[in-house]
Amino acid sequence: MHRLTNRHILIGITGGIAAYKAAELTRLFKGVGAEVRVVLTDAGAEFITPLTLQALSGNPVHQSLLDPEAEQGMGHIELARWADLIIVAPATADFMARLSSGMANDLLTTLCLATDAPIALAPAMNQAMWRDPRTQQNLEALLSQGVNIFGPGSGEQACGDTGPGRMLEPTQIMQACANLIAAGPLEGKRVVITAGPTREALDPVRFISNHSSGKMGYALAEAAAKAGAAVTLISGPVALATPKGVQRVGVESAQEMLDASLIAASAADIFIGAAAVADYRPVMVADQKIKKGAEEVMEILLTKNPDIIATIATLEPRPFMVGFAAETENVIAYARSKLERKGLDLVIANDVSQSDIGFNSDDNEVVVVGAGGEIAMPRASKAALAENLIALIAEQIN
Ligand code: PMT
């Protein structure tokens, strides 16, 4: 799991010959699973086309501060808030001068003023321009303003001169950016999460299942990955994309989910059971499609499925164990009894009697039940709730 995975990286490109290297930088960021948006100045667009950068970043390129169409999509303030990091590569002498004096006369400088994210510049210019006392003064001002400066390197320049002013190589810039992003609270940890429903086959075309969409488990996987963990997501059949940087293992039945969980959990630090596992499965699975007969009532004999989370909790050594309890009544009491019965560290109590939270909804509202007490987490999107739950779990294991 790379520190930049799922991070929002805004690449600013100003007008220098090294702008061509920004294409490779964009590709490198995408390669480690970062979300990339590119802001291209007018001068930058003389050196590299927006189309190239759009194709590489997978997003439209932002060029103008006063473009009503672009502002309709993601306005400049939204863009400034979206960024986890702004890297300007190449950063020209002109851009350094404008930024150091607080000018906001184009989209890129405006974003730099409007953002709370760290800002980094990879300067690129002729060696005489770099050595010029005015550039050096601007450099000092930028450093004192908390702007990070990567490079420049020294050597042969495009103009034929030799000296300082070469932009660092894209791999060096990416590494420097990764160093700027704070380590997440789960860096170095392995997290296994079960998500979605299981399907218990009756015959080749029918099964017993439930309404779990996987949204809660997938949101947890994304949040754990963002917190720096290596995440394995053991998922029943759902219609969701695998979160970036997450390893997904697809399963159907409870038995398959148990088998995959046992393999993944042997090296895990944290195990989270967000899946809605079928408690029972048909005793007999017909080889051929069951045909409609004369009988009005049909009986299906069921047998108990293995309890995945309770099984993992008996491993030695065992991961930190977090279960969910989907209940329609006595929610806290049932959650507490599951905590004890299944040998868990935390149970996230989910009142599924309300249709707008729990199963298949975008929001949720839970109470975290542990040995030390209960913590209520108010209604929020599953993504926001997952971030809070992961922060709480990280706090407990650290
Ligand atoms: O997927 P969504 O649509 O986003 O909905 C989210 C959710 C409601 C499914 C989720 O938040 C949730 O509450 N999941 C657990 C649902 C459930 O079946 O709870 P349970 O009370 O039956 O099981 C308790 C715990 O034991 C759970 O962690 C469950 O994963 C685990 N379990 C249950 C049975 C079994 N055979 N093996 C298990 O590991």
Brief summary:
The chain is of the alpha/beta class and about 400 residues long. The protein is built from 14 helices and 19 strands.
Structure description:
The chain has 398 residues and is α/β, with parallel strands linked by helices. The chain has 2 domains: 8-180, Flavin prenyltransferase-like (Rossmann fold, 3-Layer(aba) Sandwich); 190-397, 3-Layer(aba) Sandwich (Rossmann fold). The chain is built from 14 helices and 19 strands. The protein has helices spanning 19-31, 50-57, 68-73, 76-82, 93-100, 107-114, 127-131, 133-144, 170-180, 215-226, 254-265, 308-312, 331-341, 382-397; strands at 8-13, 35-40, 85-91, 119-123, 148-149, 153-156, 162-166, 190-195, 200-203, 206-208, 230-235, 246-250, 270-273, 280-282, 302-304, 320-327, 346-351, 363-370, 373-381. It has an 8-stranded mixed β-sheet with strand order 12-11-8-13-16-17-18-19, with helices on both faces. Helix 4 (76-82) packs across helix 6 (107-114), helix 5 (93-100) packs across helix 8 (133-144) and helix 10 (215-226) packs across helix 14. The chain is elongated. The two termini are 19 Å apart. Ligand PMT binds at residues 194, 196, 212-217, 254, 273-277, 279, 305, 307-309, 323-326, 338, 350, 352, 358-360.
Describe the structure using short key phrases.
single chain, 398 residues, alpha/beta, Rossmann fold, 2 domains, eight-stranded mixed beta sheet, five-stranded parallel beta sheet, 19 strands, binds ligand PMT
